[in-house]
Design a protein that fits this description.
alpha/beta, 7-stranded mixed sheet, 25% helix
């Protein structure tokens, strides 16, 4: 698998920094995981968005999905080259409220929303705590510790595994999902403090503990908020995790 970081800014975009967005590729199949603020622009620098084979959303907070409205415009209205096949409906694996939420984001007019369902552009498929097949990837979905319906993912291909925490506080479900993963892509939005809210985000300490407890081969730290010192978050993770830890940067790619 090839993992490409299109955006990794936590909660809001930062200066020239897109929010959450990742590409996972294998066997010619292109899976986008998250599509937050600014991600579509970054995607166009490396891949044609119309070449996407599927979309996967951990949850529906805007920093993880806001650019789907822009992708809808692109898929509906960008002219195709002569004799090119018609752009097919794109499978979108997301929490169950996704169709209504995305229609509301795309069509602010109430009368228009009554006529719109985006079904000409997308094939919405509701996530549950289960294992599903998305192209060549086996994807296990576990409920994340977050205030809305949210999931963490274990993506497996060719015997290699990538676990993506999504937005989640520490939890037994995440510990189990990450067990023995080759790579753990873990959000760590802030530094550690006793008064941090529960079931919302992880700190650098939490991400490091997760990687160490699960015995993962590598820790990739992401989703640090723009007002937090990323070096401090990474340093926290390194105090808890004995393996290689890296703070991801927009535009980086990783072979898994």
């Amino acid at each position: 698998m090839l993992l490409t970081v299109l955006g990794c800014s936590g909660s809001v975009p930062g200066p020239r920094a897109a929010c959450s967005g990742y590409l996972v590729e294998a066997d010619g199949f292109l899976l986008a995981v998250e599509l937050g603020h600014g991600v579509l622009a970054e995607m166009q620098a490396v891949r044609d968005p119309l070449a996407l084979d599927a979309l996967l959303f951990s949850h529906l907070h805007p920093d993880h999905c806001a650019d789907l409205a822009a992708l809808t415009v692109l898929r509906r209205y960008r002219p195709s080259p002569p004799h090119a096949p018609r752009v097919r409906r794109l499978p979108v694996h997301a929490p169950r409220e996704a169709p209504g939420r995305f229609v509301a984001a795309y069509s602010p007019d109430e009368a228009e929303r009554g006529r719109e369902d985006l079904s000409d552009v997308y094939d919405f498929r509701a996530l549950t705590p289960s294992t599903i097949q998305i192209g060549p990837f086996e994807v296990t979905c576990a409920v994340a510790a977050h205030p809305c319906e949210a999931y963490s993912f274990r993506i497996v291909h060719g015997g290699r595994s990538l676990v993506y925490s999504g937005d989640s506080g520490p939890s037994p479900a995440l510990d189990k999902l990450a067990k023995g993963a080759d790579v753990l892509l873990a959000e760590a939005s802030w530094t550690h403090a006793a008064d941090r809210p529960r079931d919302l985000h992880m700190s650098g300490v939490d991400a490091g503990r997760l990687a160490q407890t699960a015995g993962t081969g590598r820790l990739l730290v992401t989703h640090v908020t723009p007002w937090t010192d990323p070096a401090a978050v990474l340093a926290e993770a390194a105090t808890e995790y004995a393996g290689p830890a890296h703070l991801v940067v927009q535009g980086e790619s990783f072979d898994i």
